Design the sequence.
């Protein structure tokens, strides 16, 4: 409520809940960084702040996926509204795709299609946000969960991921944080922002802890199969016998098409716990009020999932592996930062900043703002993912651009380091 237009009082104005929750979101910090860019710098801006490699030639999607979309459009069969949880052919295709290599068979009825992983988070958090409830979120986090929970007034309790233990979940903290109002724990594997993937043993421990606490496991597998190190990807669905699991996923990252906005929520619930509790019914009610993924993309899903060849995925994993290696090795050479864990999954790494060795920079936010201004290089301050004085860097960009970015980062760090550290 405010006064504007010659002192007249109006009954509307800013929404403080929105202001507060949105200030925790990546796009907010991206805008802050963009405002700091120097328009007179003629060099290309290097975007290491957000994970979207799709614009770069090395990360083009598979032609088979483009052809599937084109065929769906030309068929003229997918111009209509879709049903609440999605077209049956698309739900079936996703169920079959996710069941591959899994010891549990996912039914098409368990699959609810969404406009990307983002929309799945929206729907799920809205459904879980009953008055008084709380949710366990990782720290560092994918901050969309925090923003969305804050917006829905679902209390956030943050548990730590431990850098010294390969970013595993601190399960003692999880147990200490939960109470009888805790509805769920979110785990992101492969992990944005830490670049790790949970082992089978660790997933089992998380499932057992959640079962003991009587809470749902929300497994964000948007980076499903994006692994290029020693630890293979294992789906949380493998542990649905222990605890009900809600899988979230999308084609945004693996097919490199975040703009296509196609994702899913899958209830993996062999004992019908989610169904009998009424959660699935409420979820479908929220889906009824929500936007659907575009119908022609749903129509193309069977072909996208079936016809994309293994060589496409393995080729992209190789590029990502090399980019992760370059990033890790180059960071080691920079005086004011360290990377406790070599990334082996997703598209990101967390880097620890030592502001005490910098001359005129007090924290991560100032570091990133000055970096944007002086080097046209965008890196996300760790506070945006809940880790102050860390940085989140994406290595999923064109390899030559990544090398240029890391060299700019090194020069910037040298220039701002206390003199005694310089050669
Ligand atoms: C962990 C995680 N979950 C969900 C999403 C949202 O997925 P989508 O791009 O499919 O909306 C992202 C996007 O970056 C993500 O990193």
Sequence:
């Amino acid at each position: 409520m405010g006064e504007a237009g010659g002192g007249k009082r109006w009954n509307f104005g800013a929404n403080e809940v929105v202001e507060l929750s949105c200030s925790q979101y990546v796009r907010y910090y991206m805008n802050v960084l963009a405002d700091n860019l120097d328009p007179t710098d003629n060099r290309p801006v290097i975007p290491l702040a957000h994970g979207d490699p799709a614009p770069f030639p090395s990360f083009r999607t598979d032609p088979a996926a483009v052809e599937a979309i084109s065929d769906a459009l030309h068929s003229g069969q997918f111009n209509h509204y879709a049903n609440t949880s999605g077209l049956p052919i698309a739900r079936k295709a996703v169920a079959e795709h996710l069941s591959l290599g899994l010891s549990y068979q996912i039914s098409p009825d368990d699959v609810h299609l969404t406009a990307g992983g983002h929309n799945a988070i929206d729907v799920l958090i809205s459904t879980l946000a009953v008055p008084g409830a709380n949710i366990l979120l990782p720290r560092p986090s994918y901050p969309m969960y925090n923003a969305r929970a804050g917006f829905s007034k679902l209390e956030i309790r943050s548990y730590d991921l431990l850098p010294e233990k390969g970013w595993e979940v601190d399960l003692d903290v999880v147990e200490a944080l939960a109470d009888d109002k805790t509805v769920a724990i979110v785990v992101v594997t492969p992990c944005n922002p830490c670049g790790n993937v949970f082992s089978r043993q660790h997933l089992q421990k998380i499932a057992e802890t959640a079962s003991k606490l009587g809470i749902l496991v929300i497994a964000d597998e948007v980076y499903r199969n994006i692994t290029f190190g020693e630890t293979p990807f294992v789906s949380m669905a493998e542990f649905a016998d222990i605890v009900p699991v809600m899988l979230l996923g999308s084609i945004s990252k693996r097919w490199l098409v975040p703009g296509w906005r196609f994702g899913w929520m899958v209830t993996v619930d062999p004992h019908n716990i989610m169904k009998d509790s009424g959660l699935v019914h409420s979820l479908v009610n929220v889906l009824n009020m929500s936007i659907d993924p575009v119908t022609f993309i749903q129509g193309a899903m069977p072909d996208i999932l079936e016809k994309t060849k293994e060589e496409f995925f393995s080729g992209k994993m190789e590029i990502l592996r090399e980019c992760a290696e370059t990033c890790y090795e180059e960071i080691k050479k920079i005086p004011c930062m360290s990377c406790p864990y070599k990334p082996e999954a997703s598209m990101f790494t967390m880097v620890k900043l030592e502001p005490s060795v910098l001359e005129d920079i007090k924290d991560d936010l100032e570091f990133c703002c000055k970096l944007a201004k002086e080097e046209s290089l965008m890196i996300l301050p760790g506070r945006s993912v809940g880790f102050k004085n860390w940085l989140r860097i994406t290595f999923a960009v064109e390899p030559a651009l990544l090398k240029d970015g890391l060299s700019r980062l090194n020069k910037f760090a040298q220039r701002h380091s206390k003199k005694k550290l310089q050669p």
Observations:
- The chain has 14 helices and 16 strands.
- Residues 186 and 229 are 23 Å apart (CA to CA).
- The chain has two domains: 16-59+311-421, 63-307.
